């Protein structure tokens, strides 16, 4: 006899394998999947990933090029000027230092390198440094990405001329949850920034952060928005509660819930690269351990290696060793376009 609710779960898996949008009943079957159905859900998510993305694993790294003193009030962020944290605070780094960091991460396995700066938009002086930094990242053999807030079309084109490959701009949460997370800019500002980067033909990463108190319906809402926008690279971040932020008392997500979130996004975004980034070590444990094996064996198809913005990451070598032991094909060259 089929277990209760399994018919809709099987239908959700079938729709995903056909790259068709999940209807409400299928989404509900995934988000309310009973514990007895988790193996089926996780196996199905892995099957969808393998069908559309094979056994490749994309590796990216970032540098915190400008840290702290951010004007925005995002509830989870250690860099907001509204919070009192111990996170690093410094102006925009010298482009040569960014170039050296890119070369180091290239040697340690990364093929994309993101230049991240706090604030809603770069000053003109910082933007000139950013242009030079992009040139140096490309010269060191990596795809150069930026995550520097909201960029105009003119600035995007200047960055493209310097060799820019991609733009990171997370929506962070669902539109219905956003007012409780950030009040200093609108959700539509973020959506417009993603649309503009896509219109310019750039590789675009846009995803979210989970564990802020959002509902399962709101997680599905975010995935629907990303699908409607046509985003094909989705960073999956999990909250690291940082003392001094408004989220300091939130519990860390369990590995089981985080894997459910990855499965939901895999089924709702069958052809997108899901890139597990911030919070991977906090939620899933030490590099090379069983928790990390579960991440690699899930619906995810990429990971961030090295350090995060304000939190130290694990040595990339442990991730590379595990990936190779599990038979993944590691990307070893920059990939341009919307990829």
Number of DSSP strands?
Answer: 10
Question: Strand portion, in percent?
Answer: 5-15%
Q: Regarding CATH, which class? A: Alpha Beta
Main sheet: strands, sense, barrel:
10 strands, parallel
Average pLDDT: 92
Specify the structural class: alpha/beta
Q: Identify the overall geometry.
A: globular
**CATH fourth-tier homologous superfamily:** Aldolase class I
Tally of individual helices: 12
Task: Give the termini distance in whole angstroms.
Answer: 42 Å
Specify the oligomeric state.
Answer: single chain
Indicate how many domains the architecture comprises.
1
Order of helices and strands: HHHEHEHEHEHEEHEHEHHEHE
Give helix % range. 40-55%
Rg over alpha carbons: 19 Å
What would the CATH topology be? TIM Barrel
The parts where pLDDT drops under 50 for at least 5 residues are: 334-339
Q: Based on the structure given, which CATH architecture is correct?
A: Alpha-Beta Barrel
């Amino acid at each position: 006899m089929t277990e209760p609710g399994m018919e809709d779960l099987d239908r959700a898996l079938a729709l995903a394998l056909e790259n068709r949008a999940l209807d409400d009943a299928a989404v509900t079957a995934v988000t309310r999947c009973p514990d007895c159905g988790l193996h089926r859900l996780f196996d199905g998510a892995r099957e969808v990933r393998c069908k559309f993305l094979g056994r490749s694993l994309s590796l990216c790294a970032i540098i915190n090029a400008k840290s702290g003193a951010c004007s925005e009030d995002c509830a989870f962020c250690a860099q907001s000027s509204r919070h009192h944290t111990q996170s690093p605070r410094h102006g925009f780094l010298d482009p040569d230092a960014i170039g050296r960091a890119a070369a180091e991460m290239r040697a340690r396995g990364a093929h994309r390198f993101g230049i991240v700066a706090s604030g809603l938009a770069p000053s003109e002086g910082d933007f000139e440094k950013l242009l030079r930094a992009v040139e140096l990242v490309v010269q060191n053999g990596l795809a150069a990405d930026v995550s520097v807030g909201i960029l105009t079309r003119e600035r995007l084109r200047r960055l493209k001329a310097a060799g820019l490959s991609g733009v990171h701009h997370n929506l962070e949460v669902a539109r219905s949850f956003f007012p409780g997370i950030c009040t200093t800019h609108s959700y539509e500002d973020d959506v417009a920034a993603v649309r503009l980067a896509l219109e310019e033909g750039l590789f675009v990463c846009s995803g979210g952060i989970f564990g802020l108190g959002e509902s399962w319906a709101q997680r599905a809402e975010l995935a629907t928005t990303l699908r409607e926008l046509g985003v094909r690279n989705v960073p999956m971040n999990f909250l690291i509660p940082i003392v001094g932020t408004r989220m300091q008392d939130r519990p860390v997500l369990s590995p089981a819930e985080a894997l459910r979130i990855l499965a939901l996004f895999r089924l709702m975004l069958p052809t997108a690269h899901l890139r597990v980034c911030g919070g991977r070590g906090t939620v899933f444990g030490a590099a090379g351990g069983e928790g990390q094996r579960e991440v690699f064996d899930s619906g995810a198809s990429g990971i961030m290696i090295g350090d995060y913005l304000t939190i130290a990451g694990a040595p990339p070598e442990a991730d590379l060793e595990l990936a190779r032991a599990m038979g993944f094909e590691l990307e070893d060259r920059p990939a341009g376009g919307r990829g």
